[in-house]
Amino acid sequence: MMLATALVFIMHLGFAGVEAGFTQAKNTVNVLFKNTLTPIIGILTYYLIGFSLMYPGFAEPGWFGFGGFPLSLPENGNTVEYASAGYTYWTDFLFQAMFAATAATIVSGAVAERIKISAYLIFTIIFVGLVYPVIGSWKWGAGALDAAGFYDFAGSTLVHSVGGWGALAGIMIIGPRLGKYVDGKVIDKPGSSVPLAVIGVFLLWFGWFGFNGGSVLSADPAIVSYVLVTTCLAACTGALGGFITGYVVFKRLDLGMVLNGILAGLVGITAGADVISPGWACFVGLVAGILVVLSAITLDKFKLDDCVGAVSVHLTCGIWGTLAVGIFGIDGDGNDMAFWPQLKGVLVCGAAAFISAYIIFTILKYTIGIRVSEQHEREGLDSHEHGIRGYTITYDQ
Known about the structure:
Blueprint: H1 2-22, H2 28-54, H3 89-110, H4 117-137, H5 144-147, H6 156-174, E1 181-182, E2 185-186, H7 194-211, H8 221-250, H9 255-270, H10 278-301, H11 310-328, H12 340-365, H13 374-379, H14 381-386
Antiparallel strand pairs: 1-2
Helix pairs in contact: 1-2, 1-3, 1-7, 2-3, 2-4, 3-4, 3-6, 4-6, 4-12, 6-11, 6-12, 7-9, 8-9, 8-10, 9-10, 9-11, 10-11, 11-12
């Protein structure tokens, strides 16, 4: 469990690489600054209030509960008996804290290059501290959706779609980057470093061994190995789906779509990595890779500017992966899993996450403001907000 925790933690470096690589060089430090503070804020807010909201100890399945603060060690909490000889209370907290911080990082990439640092940090505190854990409690905290039969193994909905809904609300309210859409055309904004983006994606894939593998919550070799096989297969077919669809649509070998296809496959299989067969996992990943390309095109048609494709990867493919459990999933007793509870979970969690994020961003917009000045956006946030640039070339005189 602690090894899995470390793997999920390193995903934040992957997110940083992907976002810095896919965004413009003039905003590199700004992107890295946000990605550095996000896990810091996420872990602290989860410690202060989030964990108690997410695991409130419902007396009966409900929609809201609170376990009290600060974190208090329960009986046998410092022994593995805390989780039926599995792991300790502190292991439980730290593993779940890494997931919480991940949800906020998804929003970061979508709204990059034009959001104020102050607005982003306030949003992160509220979203990770309150919104994410309450929604998570409905399933993982034995709340109402869990009682209704909703299934989400490692968070296609509870982590990825929740973050994706937050990202969608953000880009709707903050608007596109200057010069992104001109006379009906989509203007490319070249990223600062393709190699950095590739490194970031492979770090995320590496971290997913902990994200999905750790969600087994034990070292049982049978189920852990099965989960990692379905996870990797979906990543591979997701890459192929992104590659083929990108070639058909754009008539080029689009590396960006291959990279996002890998992430799409990973997000897609996350909800059902333990209940979907390897063969169907390949199909789930392939469809996710196709969807991520079509979703990106659709967003551009509506002039919704997502710098790194976060909405397409995490929201679109998170929804698909969650529904796929109800289509292809087989439970431990060999029975087909139900579709309706999956659809209900997607709708309920989606409505809660999107409405909450939209309200938070709207309040920030009309109070402290959420967008940097036009001058700062054109000249780059690094020089104006941080005083240094991400890439510096010096010449000896």
